User: What shape does this take?
Amino acid sequence: MKIYLFIVSLFFCGITYAQTSISGSVKDSKNEPIPGANVKVAGDSSSAVTDADGNFSLTTNKKPPFDLEISSIGFGSKKVSVTSNNQKVTAVLTDEETKLDEIVVSASRTPERVLESPVTIERMSLKDIKATTAASYYDGLENLKEVHFNTSSFGFKSVNTRGFATVANTRFMQLVDGMDNSSPALNFVLGNLIGLSELDVANVELLPGASSALYGANAFNGIMFMNSKSPFTNQGLSFYFKYGQTTQDIAGTNDYWDFGLRAAHAFSPHFAAKANFTFMKATEWIAGDTRDLTINNTGSATNPNYDGLNLYGDEVSTNLKSVGVGLAAAGLIPASAVNLLPNYNVARTGYREQDLTDNSVKSIKADFSLHFKPWANDNEIIFQHKVGLGNTIYQGANRYSLKNFFMNQTRLEFKGKNYFARAYMTAENAGDSYDMRFAAWNVNRAWKSDQTWFGQYAGAFVQSTLAGATPEQAHAAGRATADNGRFLPGTPEYNNALATVSADPNLTTGSKFQDQSKIYHSDVNYNFRDHIKFAEFQLGGSARQYELNSNGTIFTDFDGPIRYNEYGAYAQVQKKFMKEERLKFTGSVRYDKAELFDGFFSPRVSFVYSAGDKKQHNFRASYQTGFRNPTTQDLYIGLDLGPFALIGSAADNLDRFQETFNVSALGQASGFGTTATLDGNDAYNNAYTLASFQTYQQTGNSTDLQIANIDLVKPERVQAFDIGYRSVIKNDLTVDITGYYNIYNDFLNQSRVVTPFYGDVNTSPADAIEALDNSDRRVYQIYSNSKAEVTSLGFGIGLSKKVYKEFELSANYNYAEFTFDQAKDPSFIPSFNTPKHRVKASLGNQNLFKNFGFNTNVRYNSEYLWQASFADGMVPENVVFDAQINYAIPTLKSVLKVGATNLFGEDYIQVIGAGAIGQQWFASITINP
Assistant: This one.
């Protein structure tokens, strides 16, 4: 027994001897502690994170000598040599000079330098936020290399990376403290409606390409991470106030206000809390595009069927001769008078968008969080609640006035050095939001029904024609007669009608849409670096439930909420090879399963090789596959938009969606009944393509009509190839070069089709064509997958250099294009919506002289085609110049800033149908930033 104990004691002595203990502290250049710094043993998985006082301790099985690699976000990394056991280390990190040397987490879910990231990554640090020339840090994201904005309104901007994005960019994901910021109902990001206050943002990381292998199906064309400050490490009371003005040709000059407050305090090493509040108010970029969306085939200079882009109500249109047939049948005009009426459509008089909303923009955001550290280590429990309330305008298939729109998120998270477990709920409430197109329709109907209006128009047209008027004069007389009694904007009658209509959720009489949808989501991740030494392994997974609840105003959930589930799991391994660990391999795979579809695997493989004596030349290459599940809209929408309706492609949704229409007098005369009822099956199985129908309208040749063969929707797939080079040359010039090539199959797409009220396009085409000729038809936008293979490619280069003293000049160029075979899918609408050429540049100096700095930005984009449900058209090329100056007052811990956007420029657009973006200037004070 004594011998046994002696051997055991020798064994444990050997273990003790083999372990090396190191402790120390990490500080900045001002001798202030740096909390949250990463301390890692080079070539080993042993690591630690500094506490609130900047202290750390760790043990490793490595014997001295070896190096510690110390890094922290916003500071340059540093190596410290360890030569003995129990050595105390003091490391001083300098402020970050090179953006490529900053630390990021998102690319591989583990801390690493941007320089060594296995995929393309962009980053906005606290330094960048201070230097931004935009009125807010979120607007400043547009100056990042691979970012293009789609601006729907002053308060609604969506990020577009690598194309195929409308305002509702469902291919892009935005996480705020790990929570998906997407709308539960429609699955697209709502800008910064419920994002971070600029006082609380620590950094923003953006991956422009496919990231499905780690982050799931929605991270298909990019993902952005917005990370907030910890109340343990960033304490105190902070405040900002901004005032400025916006100027637009249509809206004129209007005030802009923005206010923010942050309070954070660590009550003990084990408990901290923080709260944020922001308020912003402005006037909308008013949309006033009057272009006609219909073809004037009357021969007159004035189109009686005029449908202005930003005028609503004029979409209500009918065939004038058909109206005459009905009047003659009722004995209101002689039968012979029907021949005096032209056989084409006329439209009701519409209202301008600016008269259908108050054009005010408002955003209120608030959040609080409680942070617990029960033990003397980095384990932390976080409870957080966030709310966002606001008014703005969103452009989808129609233009929507989001009024008192409300969204909230609640999160509970457990996390530590190597793990996190997170669960959250996102809920939204549409508040008093309404569809402005339907508002115009039903304000018109409030003072005169469609039947009466068109009947008076036809009667006056006949009388004027008999009196010798020209067709153009007869149309003018018809409209003047029919418009008698019209509610004029600004009058009490108009205001009361608009208030009544916008509060009514019945779209036959009102325009309000209801939405109380929710998302329930959970994530887990564990890093085995402390248990597995030869490589870094991670495992994780997620689960999500959608609960759609619009009371039938958006989805076909008229009989109760629609629920469905998704879940996924992933694994990743990362390993460094070769002498000095110059080659880094990262491999990951994720499996995702949606309730309505088969599961998919998404693998990713990447290599990074670091060349040069200081590993300053980094070459990377990656390949990954990804997929995107159809959105809630793709599956369950059932929305009447007036000129057309949207129908989701879930099999059970086709039966749930139904519409009933009145058959024209011409159709009734041919024996096709008085009404026709259509459902989703008719849209998918009994329709012609809209493009072929439009050709038929011009030629009259029925052989031009093409039957739409549309399959039900399924997940979209992509293969993504990414290469790049990053370097810091002579410790001065930073270079970042990127290239990518994507291959899309089963590309999720919307197709527009025309369904006849009667007849069958397959078995009785003559009756179907008669229905088309009688205007007894319905246009649908349905969801499916393109049969054509779609490819996109792009490349970019970014350069940054201090050209003189502290003057820093940076510039970048991006090229993007896509290809597909239109002949394989004539109805395919790609909606690439991205300029082929983009150039951005900046010049600034944050230390021009004591406490004074400035920055300037310029952006150029070439002309590009915009395609979306609301409207198509060319977006002109434009150049935008922004600038700001700032002055720090150290004794007051304050920063003053004055800036302006679109200096010297004209109003410009990024989205067809949205308001033109004008100019903005602002002045701000930030205390304790």
